[in-house]
Amino acid sequence: MAKTSLTSMSVEALLKLRDDIGDVLSRKAGQLQSQLAALGDGGWITPGKKSDGRRTSKMKGRKVPPKYRNPKNRSETWAGRGAMPRWLAAEIKKGKKREDFAIDKSAAKAKGRRAKKTGRKQKSTESAEASAAA
Question: Is the overall model pTM greater than 0.85, yes or no?
Answer without folding.
Answer: no
